[in-house]
Amino acid sequence: MKLHKLFYVLLMLLAVGLLAFLPVEDKPADRLEIGAKAPLANVEVTDVSGEKLTLAEVAGENGLLVNFSCNTCPWVKAWEDRYNPIANLAEENDIGVIMLNPNAAIRNDGESMEDMQARAKSSNYDFYYALDEQAKLAEAFGATRTPDIFLFNSDMELVYTGAIDDNAKSAQDVEQQFLKDAIQNLVAGKEINPQTTKALGCTIKWPK
């Protein structure tokens, strides 16, 4: 084998070896499109109370609000002061609310059921907070971030997805209340605009 060919082969072997140590990218997912039905609606998840429930059971007469969230993401902490008010608004309008924790890869690093129970208590969560144990629901929804919002109508069809509002840092400085407006327009039978926004947050920690 000629020297330049040998060098090329060695270079390729080195590249393959290095690739094995590169960090894994986010799990690819097809995000639910507007109008799509809520997937895995009859799959049981476990709430911090110990209760087992499904999305179909949580849904109210006017729909369902699903928030993929967690305990350890600073984006969640930034938006968390809006969690209870939004949940109260939804439930007042017969929209069921559930938050799901999909961070399966770091269950032993702040995302266990025990951690979730402590967070729900310290933050006075007034809604279901359940374990998406192997991130199966997150994968089916095409969720990528925490937080990541999915709002469904009474037929369990997606009507809004993305961010809670346009300012994670300050509720007082919000100019566009995407989710609040979507809830109110959904119940009023009005057009929801925008129907999609960009979810901003920490990447979901997928199971390995």
Q: Can you lay out the helices and strands and say which pair or pack?
A:
Layout: H1 3-19, E1 45-47, E2 52-53, H2 55-58, E3 63-68, H3 74-79, H4 83-92, E4 95-101, H5 113-122, E5 128-131, H6 136-141, E6 145-146, E7 148-152, E8 158-162, H7 178-188, E9 202-203
Parallel strand pairs: 3-4, 4-5
Antiparallel strand pairs: 1-2, 1-5, 3-7, 6-9, 7-8
Mean pLDDT, all residues: 90
Gross geometry:
globular
Number of strands: 9
Q: Which structural class fits the helix and strand makeup?
A: alpha+beta
The low-confidence parts are 5-25
What string gives the helices and strands in order?
A: HEEHEHHEHEHEEEHE
Question: Could you tell me the strand content as a percent range?
Answer: 15-25%
Structure explained in plain terms:
This protein has 208 residues and is an alpha+beta fold. The chain is 31% helix and 17% strand. The chain is built from seven helices and nine strands. The strands form two sheets. Strands 2-1-5-4-3-7-8 form a seven-stranded mixed β-sheet. Strands 6-9 form a two-stranded antiparallel ribbon. A hairpin with a 5-residue loop joins β7 (148-152) and β8 (158-162). Residues 5-25 have low confidence and may be disordered.
